[in-house]
Amino acid sequence: MPALAPSDIIAVVGAGAMGAGIAQVAAQAGHSVRLFDNRDGAAQAGIDGVRRQLEKRVAKGKMGQDEVDAIIERMSPVDSLDELADSRLVVEAIVENLEVKRGVFAKLETLCAPDTLLTSNTSSLSITSIAANLDRPERVAGLHFFNPAPVMKLVEVISGLATEAEVADTLYATAAAWGKKPVHASSTPGFIVNRVARPFYAESLRLLQEGAGAPATLDALLRRAGGFRMGPFELMDLIGHDVNYAVTRSVFDAYYGDTRFEPSLVQLALVEAGRLGRKSGQGFYEYRKQAAPVTADFASPVKAELPPLVIEGQPGVFSPLVARAEATGLEVIRHESISGQARFRLGGLTLALSDGRCATERALDEGLETLVLFDLCLDYGEASAIALAASANTDDASRDLATALFQRLGLDVAWLTDTPGLVVLRTVAMLANEAADAVLQGVCSAGDGDLAMQAGLNYPRGPLAWADGLGLAYVHRTLTHLHQSYGEERYRASFLLRRKALAGETFHE
Ligand code: NAI
N or C: which end of the chain has fewer CB within 10 A? Predict the structure, then answer.
């Protein structure tokens, strides 16, 4: 389906943070935009705000004043919904309240032409519910921008039960023409991003609750080993715990209490205490001026004579670690023909990549005296930190040897308590699991699921492409081990991931 033409008039209802930004996006794409807000002066204030933002770009030499004037010229504040009658597309971005939104859509339906596309920017309400009771629910869809709308690339195009495919396709093409990265999703709680992202917060909150590591350490590991732009605790502090907790709570309730989405009591306590994050001056971290900086808990430098590093099996994803060892002049002996999961031997010590079992369990399973597990890294050639965990009877000398090895490779070492899946592996496995279930349930395609997480939240890789790269059998095994370790439904593997792992398939070609 073709995109709407630049000559088509776009209407935006609600001129708050989102509405003004969406109006700007449409005006920048060449449309005339009508902006309505039921608060006196709010539409004009929204346009003034857009002008101020754009003029900052002029000051930096990134935009011409003429261009800004032309964009602002195309945006007009209007005093009533009636003045939106000749629009081709309406984007509603008012208060997040189903009854109020339904009232606005009912009014728009009577005012606009029968083929005007009516869309909502809702984050959490059902498009199917918003469209219910309308005469033509087939032209209603979600057009979910991310904050700030002019900057964030992702737009989720949400189809409700009645939405016609051509309507969703036209919106998709239009968002693309506006320079956005659109994805299709069906109207289900959290759509794609707010659903698939839950484990990013939930697994770290869980690790904190279980005393596996401190927020600053877990944040540093997800950034410096996992490649995420921000760690979960600093991100939750930025979003605000009230908002982040409310989203989790609403997704949890909407999925009838599925424990995958269970909110965290640790986060609830912050909300109860009013420690909402940056905006209140305190969350997991302190933001007052005198606050002492909190640093990650990395091991102090250990000096030790390192014996040759023996590699048994094919190191696969962590082969860049072997290259790093060789680059430091460490003697490396390869026994690549040994089958099974690859592992390192360093003197009497065995080291292996986590597979979702805790080190103590895996040492018992594999008949090892001691075992040190290391965590997943996005790119073992680039990572600058890594998490380790040791089996129950590992002595200090063995821990020091493991620390010295990874430090020699140029990595800061964080020792976590012996916890299944450590932090990056566990987070990535659970993100992929959630994305797999979204695909299984027809919410989105694998490609759109991955694109949504990258364009909406800046994830370094789409969770499903990441799982493909690791091998679905390995990701499935990791989840199965997490499930066995905790005995909780929360860690059950998605059936689609299981089936693809069994069939030797991947999510992407
Ligand atoms: P906001 O509170 O900044 O702006 C809402 C605006 O709508 C206000 O100016 C208000 O006066 C106006 N309004 C309220 N009821 C109205 C009505 N009946 N008719 C006309 N105008 C009305 O809210 P924000 O943050 O812009 O959110 C708007 C929508 O976008 C909500 O549905 C929200 O869930 C969604 N959203 C918000 C995001 C965010 O990060 N803030 C991100 C993505 C979606």
Answer: C
Distance 96 CA to ligand 1 centre (A): 7
Residue 402 placed within a domain:
yes
Instruction: Please state the φ and ψ torsions of residue 373, each to the nearest 5 degrees.
Output: -105, 140
pLDDT value, residue 485: 98
CB 490 within 8 A of CB 263: no
| Residue 34 and residue 113 share a domain | yes
Q: What is the pTM of this model?
A: 0.95
H helix runs in 255-295, sequence order: 265-273
- The answer to whether 54 and 68 have CB atoms below 8 angstroms apart is yes
- Residue 93 Cβ contacting ligand 1 at under 6 Å: yes
Are 22 and 134 in the same domain? Answer: yes
Contact 488, 260 (CB under 8 A): no
**CATH number of domain containing 231:** 1.10.1040.50
For residue 112, tell me if it sits in a domain. Answer: yes
In contact, 240 and 281? CB cutoff 8 Å:
no
Q: Which domain holds residue 474?
A: 429-503
Choose among 229, 213, 212, 199: nearest CA to 429: 199
* Residue 38 Cβ contacting ligand 1 at under 6 Å: yes
- Ligand 1 centroid to residue 99 C-alpha, Å: 14
The answer to whether residues 355 and 480 touch, using CB atoms and an 8 Å cutoff, is: no
Question: Block means of pLDDT (10 residues each) for the chain, length 509 residues?
Answer: 96 97 98 98 98 96 96 98 97 96 98 97 96 97 96 97 98 98 98 98 98 98 98 96 96 97 98 97 93 93 94 92 95 89 94 98 96 98 98 95 98 98 98 98 98 97 98 98 98 98 96
The burial class, CB within 10 Å (0-12 / 13-18 / 19+), for 291 is exposed
So what's the pLDDT on residue 258?
Answer: 97
Question: What is residue 186's DSSP assignment?
Answer: E
For the sheet containing 309-312, what is the strand order? 332-335, 309-312, 343-346, 349-353, 372-374, 385-390, 412-415
Domain count, the chain: 4
What is the total residue count of the chain? 509
- Indicate if ligand 1 lies below 6 Å from the C-beta of 234: no
Closest CA to 374 of 340, 402, 404: 402
**CA of residue 123 to ligand 1 center, whole Å:** 10
Task: Say if strands 385-390 and 372-374 run parallel, antiparallel, or are unpaired.
Answer: antiparallel
Ligand 1 and 448: CB distance under 6 A: no
Cis peptide preceding 148, ω within 30 of 0: yes
Residues in a beta bridge with 159? 141, 186
- Closest to 494 in 3D by CA, of 258, 264, 263: 258
State the catalytic residues.
123, 144, 156, 194
Residue type, 95: V
Nearest-atom number in ligand 1 for the CA of 104 is 18
Residue 98 Cβ contacting ligand 1 at under 6 Å:
no
